[in-house]
Amino acid sequence: MSNTLNESQNQAPDSEKQAKNLRYRELSDVWRKVMAIMTACSIVLAVNQIFNLGFLVGYVMLDSRYMYLITGVMLCMVFITFPASKKSPDHVPWFDIVIMVIITIVFSYYAFYAERIVLEAWEYTAPPLGEALALVTWVIVMEAGRRAGGWPVFFIVAIFSLYPTFADMLPAVIAALSIPITDAAIFHVMGAESLFGLPMTVFATLVFGFLVFGISLQFTGGGPFFINLAFALLGHMRGGPAKVAIFSSGLMGSMSGGPISNVLTTGPLSIPAMRRIGFSKEYASGVEACASTGGVFMPPIMGATAFVMASFLNISYVTVAIAAIVPSVLYFFGLFMQIDAYAARRDLRGLPKAELPKLGNVFKEGWYFIAVFIALIWMLVYLQREAVAPFYATAILLVVNQFTVHKLYFDRFMQLVAQMGKLLAELAGILAAIGLIIGGLAVTGIAGTIANDLVYLAGENVIVLLIMGALTSFILGIGMTVTAAYIFLAIVLVPALTNSGLDPLASHMFVMYWGMLSFITPPVALAAFAAASVANVSPMRAGIEAMRLGAIIYFVPFFFVFNPALLLQASALENLQAITTAIIGVAIVSAALQGYLIGVGDLGGGAKGIIARILIGIAGLTLALPAGGLFGFSQTFLLVVAILFLGAGILGRFLFLSKSTPGSPSS
Hints:
two-stranded antiparallel ribbon; globular; 2 strands; single chain; 72% helix
């Protein structure tokens, strides 16, 4: 099996490359070197500013000058990396070169006059040249957002960034005072609340280092190590390869923060392994899609969203990561139990131990990955050095790696730099564009009005407001990245939730979770569709299977909003009680979804079997619902109700189902 693993791991990047060619340019050697230089420049700028080194000019530069310089470099990288159309040409056309020259001139102008822009408040009264350049920058940033994030990002950004110019012509509910387009432009570009507002500031000061660490971890062999570790631990168990997918894809997703790229990295290995022991193509695709999507909200890295959330709430990133532990555990535990039930019902055994890598050998070859992770967590939690921790961890990783079999030679190192540049450019292009949304809402002050209107429409009913919020979050999550959707919702929707008395952290987590559910929910289900392309199966069938497998996550956000104990925001006893009942409840719901309950067996199919599964599912949801909180139900009441429904479901299974039903693979 170890040879098979190695072959599959070597094939995975090729599969990923083929899929990404639809979006990324195939660059010539010259442009790869240009990208490498720009990536190095951006890293030097970030290290200089974050560590307060001052080795560029003898002193630490003004924050706004740093933002102008690093954003200019990143925007140039966007126009190198992403073609104007899906044809993905293998060269950078003349018009992209012209755009990059314009970016260089414009952002050099901003950087040169950085002090004057701040001291003379150019965001309100800029000179004519500044106004003209701001208009040009506005257009360039929207195009960068389109290339990096797609048309949905472009249209949403265009509407909301232009909103201040026509706000007075809208219905009274969403109307505001309008301003000239030149005033809107200088506010977007010269101010600290739009283009260079929260998204880009967090990216340039916090997220940057973690992206560098994540890419370095993958290129030094971290991906194969975690996959081999998962096979060594879980490959022999019932339904082993599917459980391996949960473990490995969850860890990889935490590093990359991208569900689709994660599917394309681990899917070519995990999906064939699942197919080998009897999982259907649809089910294997669903497992991989759910596991890869779940990695986005799994600590310790969690992509970029957690850092933006921490800035919105003015709390530490560690606080957000700790709050995300229990929901992510419930999600992955639910996946694990569903896979176990599915495998038990169909008698799908694991892989032979002789074909699996030895745990000792895996640790011997990759122990330093675990050590680096421990060092990173120690710096984050104990030292609370969030900005610099990933840079130290990356340095340790790269140094230690040079004394291992995964030693980076020059060609491989250049591949690392190129991939790092692509990821940095992609996220920077999206976040720069999303910042314009914040600016459009900030200059008009409409965000507070929208929040009040939502509360009014919900009739001050928190349940109705949450359902409205869930649907809004899901719709906005379609076609947008998790971070982009979250930022918009945090501005527009979260104030409505907090104004209704809900916990701020729980409200932010709620919209983040629902914003990413579009990755596994048809008709979009981008992560499921990516997995379907690897498994060569119908995308819609893979999406439906992913939605059923990920069903737990549709309920978990409501649970932690009802009672923040599931975010570890209550007393130790309340937290322990909520977590214990939630885990048991999730296990029961998983059994109902897959039709197999441990200790009882197959719950059967047909109408009567479905009734039994519904009763058992209600029991699980009741038990998972935290006591107290919004509804105020006592734990005793919830326990009694859960036992009654569970007993009724089990009794129905024994009394009404025919003897031929057990063992049936029907769903």
